[in-house]
Amino acid sequence: MNTILKRTLLPSLMAASLAGVTLVPAQQASADDRVLRDIGIGAATNVVTGAIRGNGDFLGNAVKGGATGAAVNGANGLRSNPRHRNAAQDIGVGAGASALTGVITGDRKDTLGNAIDGAAVGGAIHLLTK
Known about the structure:
By secondary structure, this protein is an all-alpha fold. The chain has helices at residues 3-23, 35-53, 58-77, 87-105, 111-129. Helix 2 (35-53) crosses helix 5 (111-129), helix 3 (58-77) packs across helix 5 (111-129) and helix 4 crosses helix 5 (111-129). The longest helix is centred in the first third of the chain and has 21 residues, at 3-23. It starts with a helix and ends with a helix. The model is unreliable at 19-29 (pLDDT under 50).
């Protein structure tokens, strides 16, 4: 690209992009105000189940449990009435989220075990927040 064109086009393009991004109104996240509680429950539950099964380290299990708790909270927020939780949904979302988080964090050798840990997280969140 011609240097004169670069010097005239790029600054105005960047200014327009910056103005467009900052003027777009932000929308509130879909998670409810209890997301930190569910992340904590998920982290604690997954640390315990990981220790019982002898799988992973403390921090890795806490991260997977926290992500699973956030996913269960987000899935519950999609319901028309979040006060009426569904046990099967919480357990299923927990299992899927934990298996996926295990793949993302590099714990691919025990996907079924991660799903079991996630199901326990979903069940714990369901029991403790019902």
